[in-house]
Amino acid sequence: MKIFKFGGASVKDADGVRNVVQVVQTMGFDGLGIVVSAMGKMTNALEDIITHYQKNDNSYLSMIDALFSKHLDIVVELESNGASEDVLVRFRESELKKELKATIESLKGTMLRNQSKNHAFIYDQVVSHGELLSTMIVASYFNAHHIPVQWMDARQLIKTDQKYRDAAVDWKETEKAIKSNCSGKLFLTQGFIGADENGFTTTLGREGSDYTAAILAYALDATHVTIWKDVPGVLNGDPRVFDNTVLLEQISYREAIELAFYGASVIHPKTLQPLQGKQIELRVKSFLNPKAPGTVIKEGDALQPMTPCYIVRNNLVFLEISARDFSFIGEHNISDIFHRLSESKMQVGLLQNSAISFTICVEDKYNKLAELLEGLEARYKVNAVTGVSLYTIRHHSDNAIESIENGKDVLLRQRTQETLQLVVKG
């Protein structure tokens, strides 16, 4: 058994859907489970719909109609060209348009009947329709090509608690449902979504579709998972920021988790953990060049080739905190500071403490910096520098360090045997 996951970029339009079919035809579909995300920017469109809905702006209904039209345009284009006539005929004769229309009407009904004021609950009931619509289209197009995938509702497979927008998986019930419904089948399902014990839709949080693929692989004892992207694999740095990046042919599970922790756009640790537990390989490959080797994440050496890896996080806040009476910054102070950081939902990127000061670099994702500073300044002296960048080099070398430090105003430098971090102003 193997699992393929296709993200929104791979199915953003009719050409993308055609290409996904070509990838599966090229790679083979015996013993295959397929996970598909919402098309292109459809999740963003659904989030806009939620915003208008919660403002009691009835234009959300016309926005839903516009969302339906975008999906229908893709269907019409798939019906028109890009395949043999017998494929096009089978696709046109499917019940797809009726199914899409019924799903859109169900979405409207859900929103009109809703009585809940819980934003996270409403979010999950609505935004999940992006995955439902995309998988209906892709599954229908596969079947028109005589690739007999069975469309599965992920809400019947992934069982979770009621923590909407970041639900935790009930592994016992989920494994039972997946084994019962998916074993030995060629199937296609949605990423990102599940359901609680009452049947309400839940979503799995950050990188939810990758996580879905890992959950399925774990339950089905798959040989490997392949995540298909528009890049050749995992690179040692973002090519838009760093020069002369190289493809990482192999990464260990542990190293991939380390890179993700420091902010690299690799695979989220929650996706890796179930795969690592059963030693299931994770492959990252290009849907534009499916025969290319890509990157394999598995047990073994940290990196192949062994090379410095570069990560940058921008628009962070650098805080220097000290006691007003120049006393020591002890455990009780640090505990207090972290409590305030947690209340303000600050994500910590780097920290360093001395006898009389505590230095930290944080990301203000929820625009709560003013609130945080007000609380801290009541008790401490605080110097805040906004708009800083945090550079991380894993497996650093002298040349790698020089290439990053050269010409930059470095506020803080922290180095361990494997990792160098620099807070840079401006």
UniProtKB/TrEMBL annotation:
Swiss-Prot/TrEMBL catalytic activity = L-aspartate + ATP = 4-phospho-L-aspartate + ADP
Among InterPro entries, the record links this protein to: AceGlu_kinase-like_sf, Asp/Glu/Uridylate_kinase, Asp_kinase, AsparK_Bifunc_asparK/hSer_DH
Kinase: is it a keyword of this entry?
Answer: yes
Keywords, comma-separated and alphabetical: Amino-acid biosynthesis, ATP-binding, Kinase, Nucleotide-binding, Transferase
Q: Does the keyword Amino-acid biosynthesis apply?
A: yes
State its Enzyme Commission number(s).
2.7.2.4
Q: Which Pfam families match?
A: AA_kinase (PF00696)
* SUPFAM superfamilies per the UniProt record, alphabetical: Carbamate kinase-like
Per the record, the pathway is: Amino-acid biosynthesis; L-lysine biosynthesis via DAP pathway; (S)-tetrahydrodipicolinate from L-aspartate: step 1/4; Amino-acid biosynthesis; L-threonine biosynthesis; L-threonine from L-aspartate: step 1/5; Amino-acid biosynthesis; L-methionine biosynthesis via de novo pathway; L-homoserine from L-aspartate: step 1/3
- The Aspartate/glutamate/uridylate kinase domain extends over 3-286
GO terms of molecular function? aspartate kinase activity
Concerning its family, UniProt says:
Belongs to the aspartokinase family.
Protein name as it appears in the record: Aspartokinase
Query: From what organism does this protein derive?
Result: Nonlabens mediterrranea
